[in-house]
Each structure stands twice: as C-alpha cells, then as structure tokens.
C-alpha cells in the first residue's frame, strides 16, 4: 500500500508539473528564405515547420549577397566562408521572396512579414531602389533588412567597400524607412574578432541618435559566432547594451544566433540572471529569432532553444519576447 501511494503521489506531481509547464507561440523575428546561393527548401517546408512548432508569424527576407563559385574553385562552396571567392550584392533576392509570398493564400499571407534586403548599403542610389520596390509591390514590404554592414569575414569577402551602418547611403535609407513607417534590421558587429572593446559601436549608435523616428532592430546585439570563436564572451556587452536601451527608445534587440549562448544561458544551459533582469527591465524591446538560412528543418529547434530563458521571465514578459514584440515593431498598418 505505501508503494502504491508513493507511485500515485509521483504521478500527481508529474501531472501538476506538466500542467504548469509553459507552451509558447512564437514570432520568428529573423528568417532568411534563401541561403547565400539564393536557394531555398521552399514554402511548403517552411509552412510545415511553422505548423509543427507553434510559429504563428515570421519575418521573411532574402540574403542581400550571393556567394560566387569562382572559376578556379573545383568544388562548389556550401557557405560564404567555404573558400576565398567573393560575394556580391544581389537585388533579385527580394523578387524571390515576393514571388514566394505572392503564392500564399490570403490567410497564410497574414503570417508572413517580408523585409526588403537586396541593395548595396554603400550605394547612395539604394534608397531610390528601395522606393521602386515599394512602388512595384504596394503593401508587401513591412521592413528593411537584414542589412549587412560589419559582418565578420563576409565583410572582407564582399565586393566593394566596407559597409557601415552610419554611412551616407544608409542615412538616406533611414529617412525613407521613417517616412514609410518601416523598421530596419541591421547586422553591425560591435567589435572585431580580436578587439576586447566596442570598436565599432559608434557605427550603430550614431544612427540611433540621429534618427529617433526610425525603429532599429539590432541583429544579435552586435555579436557573432565568429567573434565568439576568438573571444568567448564580450564582458562589455551587457553594460553597453543596458546604456543603449536606456538612451535610445528606438532600439530593439534580435536575440537570434549568437546571443543565446554564452549570454542568455550559461555553460550548463541555465538562464543568466543579469540578462533576465535586463529583459524584465525592457520587456518590449527583445524578440526571438531563428536566423535560419534557406533550410527549415531546424527552425523549431532554434526557437524552442529559447524556452529555458523564457521560462525564467514573468509569463507576460515571456509571451511578449516569444511572439508579441516583433509584431509590435511592424508598421502600424499591419494587421496584428
């Protein structure tokens, strides 16, 4: 009898725990429909991954560069870092995204939020190109990005000058974004692979200060996997990010790719309390994303990997970070 009671008590405890476990609906704030060769697994697989993993909304964008298969390379590279051949700005990436979204049913289309990325951020003609795309596809584009500026080895591999988030070409784009109520997602590394200080911080901070009416989504808060290979963790990131969130109400943080570890979670997979407190303090300024690139078989895994951190937040804040904050940063004309 005591054994039976013990088993019953254990079952009740497990049942109670399961009842208390949270399930999140997600908005993926950072998804690339194509890879660096402008290839994709396709919309049916993306829709299935969304259905299987409670992903209600996605930011969908192309990749603004294409990797060259150089004449001297006997094997086609699988990634932009696969060899030393360069990459080049590729505006047709937006046409691919527009065509894919255009084939969706009206109900499906409400779950997709296309961002326009196929332009050269060094070219002061780019704002005119973006305006043409807005005119060609009225009502389609809901944001600009991911704009590649400082981006690890991709910066060196991309043909032309180094893109900066605070150059004249991007300044023109920020004005256009504000006029059209479009958020801008920027990839702008906060430092180089070896410098243990925020070497490039001014390149993102200057636009934040000079364009208060433009909403900026800072991809990965300036971190990257390549930086982590050389510097395991940036000690200055948390205080720098805290100051910037205090100073710039137009700054939002995309938590995808390189922020989950080693920042949000420690080596044991436990939430870091300093980051929990930061998100609690700014509950509407953070959003999760997968940053998948053209393949969607790991989409659910990437978003579910945030669950331990979300579970450490108050439930209302967790739901904002998981789903609502991305939707809130979109143009006011977008149906929520």
From TrEMBL:
Which is a Pfam family this sequence falls into? Answer: Amidohydro_2
> Which UniProt keywords are listed?
Hydrolase, Signal
Output the Gene Ontology terms for molecular function: hydrolase activity
Q: Which Gene3D superfamilies match?
A: Metal-dependent hydrolases
The residues the entry assigns to the signal sequence are: 1-21
Q: Record's SUPFAM superfamilies?
A: Metallo-dependent hydrolases
Q: What is this protein called?
A: Amidohydrolase family protein
